[in-house]
Amino acid sequence: MPSVKRRVLPGFSLSLGYTVFYLTVLVLLPVLACFSKAASLTLAQFGAAVWTERTRAAYLLTLGTSLVAAVVNVFLGLLIAWVLVRYRFPGRRLMDSLIDLPLALPTAVGGLVYASLYAKKGWLGRYLVPLGIQAAYSRLAIVLVLVFIGLPFVVRTVQPVLEDLEAESEEAAASLGATRWQAFRRVILPPLCPALITGFALAFARSLGEYGSVVFVSGNMPYKTEIAPVLIVARLEEFAYGEATAIAVVLLAISFSMLVLINLLERWSRGSEAHV
Amino acid sequence: MSDAQDPAWVRWSLTLAAMAVVGVLIVIPVAQVFVGALGNGLGAYWDNLFADADTRHSIRLTLTVVPLALGANLVFGVAAAWTIARFRFPGRTVLTALIDLPFSVSPVVAGLMFVLIFGLQGYLGPFLRRDGYAVMPYLFSLLGAGLFAGVFVLFRPTRPRPRGSLWNHPGLVGLLGSVAVFAILFFAQQYFEVWPRDQSLKILFATPGLVLATAFVTFPFVARELIPVMEAIGDDEEMAAVSLGANGWQMFWRVTVPNIKWGLAYGIILCNARAMGEFGAVYVVSGHIAGQTDTMPLRVEKLFQEYNLPGSFAVASLLTLLAILTLIVKTGLETRSPTEGPHVD
Fold first, then answer.
1. Which A-chain residues 144-183 have CB contacts (< 8 A) with chain B?
2. CA nearest B272 in A: which residue?
3. Residues of chain B whose pLDDT is less than 50?
4. Window B:28-67, CB contacts with A under 8 Å
5. Which one of B24, B104, B253 would you mutate to disrupt binding with A, by most A Cβ within 10 Å of its Cβ?
6. pLDDT band (50, 70, 90) for residue A184
7. Domains of chain A, CATH where assigned
8. Among A85, B195, B263, B322, which is most exposed with the fewest C-beta within 10 angstroms?
9. Average pLDDT in the A247-258 region?
């Protein structure tokens, strides 16, 4: 479909016009409103809103828990993708479908369940709390729900790449005397790396903005278990719209840079796929 | 498959480890939802769901908000996919990237944006509160006129007409028709007094705000599913339909829709699941008025805060059933659709 030639298919101007109109009204104008509100603050006000001890603790907690959860997800996701692709066992298809559950399950339900499972009297909490593991209303609780939320992202990015991997190079490695572990590290892992990193970035980006599940399990104690989105809600409830917006802009900046990064990563992983 | 390359003990320990991970992270939580909901018997479960007026209202509200947001995003998704998959134009890459934008915005921030626009100190809030209902007739008539113009462009007969016929000036006919539609709609609204005169229009802390926030968060789903499907199918059949004399409407319903229906269904169920479960954005714009602006996920949270765990689990069990149903339909669609592998987010 060259753009110079007259377009044969109908509806170009109509659908383009509608797409741009709807996108502008529903997405671009609200984003613009956010930035324009932030721009109405003076630099000093902005700084005072985004850089206090409480906000610093919130950013650190958000970034830290998201990072830990995404790293855990890389390992768990690789394990699950490997088992799903390479082995045949009863219940494999069920497991394959269940992986998507965190995407379909409302985050509030996830939060509710995790909060009650790991509470002192919960199914798992009653064994963990006596051991000194507080997996509800703590940082560990936040990491746990973020692992739950992010798991499908890694599995679903690694799975297709693993399926396309040729068995020949592994067999060659084995016939040249490599141990299975060496073959895994030298032959299988390198082509998986881009997918693993993309999955990591997707899970990380999702975790940064997560609110629904975390608010149930974290306990939301300022300085300790208060993530950045919770802080925004707290500011809103004090009707401090300017401060809330300032923190929101910081979050937006982080997630936009993540978006750019993910796009670059996906391009890179597609490129390296083509070379293999 | 290279089953044979790994020794049996490696195979089994890895499989068991994966099962344990899925069990602890996913299966046990789902079981807990239903045990928590049904722990006091079926009668108590039923009462928790339907004896509580606020819970009943939250179910009704979710069932109102979600179809509205879903419908809006569906129309957008089809239009966006048609534009992006079928035409090459400057700015196409930017448009594609912008469609994904809501995925990278934290739901809370999305809600905040609508508070900034429609709140009492917001950009449009005071104006809408004062004159909201006065603007509505103009807005709706304009929408109707736009709709007419769109349908006219699609339906316009492609065959040439005899000389001097009005149909040879489609621009003029479209303009006249739009003006007529605008006038009819406008006077009809005045005559039947559709909009109340002495009330102020509420968007925030009311249903329209919930619809807007939900539509924002679920914005990309349908478009994202449809674009790869349409690109994979290609435009040969549509070209054939058009060159055989079909107008846009006929081509769309007889060729495009049958081709993309599974992709469309896939996008709709994903969008629906996310819309039903949306929490963060809706939490910010709802104002938590029990019996008025609490959707089902918000009701789950409120009951949890009130230490009414069985009630909370009862509402959660409905949402979980929805999620499981979504997965079943999704799995069914994936085996059916020719082009689609699993898609993340």
1. 147-148, 151-153, 156-157, 159-160, 167, 170-171, 174, 180
2. A104
3. 1-3, 339-345
4. 28-30, 32-33, 36
5. B104
6. confident
7. 41-275 (1.10.3720.10)
8. B195
9. 90
Amino acid symbol at B106: S
- Per-residue b or e along B176-214, where b marks 16 or more CB atoms closer than 10 Å to that residue's CB: eebeebbeebbeebeeeeebeeeeebbbbbbbbbbbbbb
Q: What is the pLDDT of residues B7-54, one digit of tens each?
A: 888 899 999 999 999 999 999 999 999 999 998 889 999 998 899 899
Q: Do B115 and A206 touch (CB under 8 A)?
A: no
Return the domain boundaries, chain B.
Answer: 1-38, 42-119+204-345, 129-200
The SS3 of residue A234 is helix
Q: Which position has the token pair 């936009």?
A: A256
What sign does the CA torsion over A123, A84, A144, B219 have?
Answer: negative
Mutate to test the interface with A, among B32, B96, B116, B300 (most CBs of A within 10 A): B116
Nearest CB to A105: which of B5, B22, B277?
A: B277
User: Whose CA is closest to B279, among A159, A265, A109?
Assistant: A109
Interface test with A, best of B108, B253, B335 (most A CBs within 10 A): B108
pLDDT digits (tens, 9 = 90+) for B179-201: 898 888 888 888 887 787 777 78
Alpha helices in A87-188 (DSSP H): 92-98, 101-104, 107-117, 125-128, 139-164, 167-175, 180-183
Q: How many CB atoms lie within 10 A of CB B123?
A: 16
Cα B84 from Cα A119, distance rounded (Å)? 49
Tokens of B148: 């007419």
The correct CATH number of B42-119+204-345 out of 3.30.559.10, 3.40.630.30, 3.40.50.12650, 1.10.3720.10 is 1.10.3720.10
Query: Which chain A residues are within 8 Å of B331, Cβ to Cβ?
Result: 97
ipTM: 0.88
- Residue A109 forms contact with B (CB below 8 Å): yes
Say what the pTM is: 0.88
How far, in Å, are B13, B53, B286 from residue A108 at the CA level?
Answer: 33, 21, 15
Contacts of B154 in chain A (CB under 8 A): 10-11, 14
In angstroms, the CA B125 to CA A268 distance is 45
Nearest to B53 by CA among B259, B244, B299: B299
Instruction: Answer yes or no: are the C-beta atoms of B284 and B217 closer than 8 Å.
Output: no
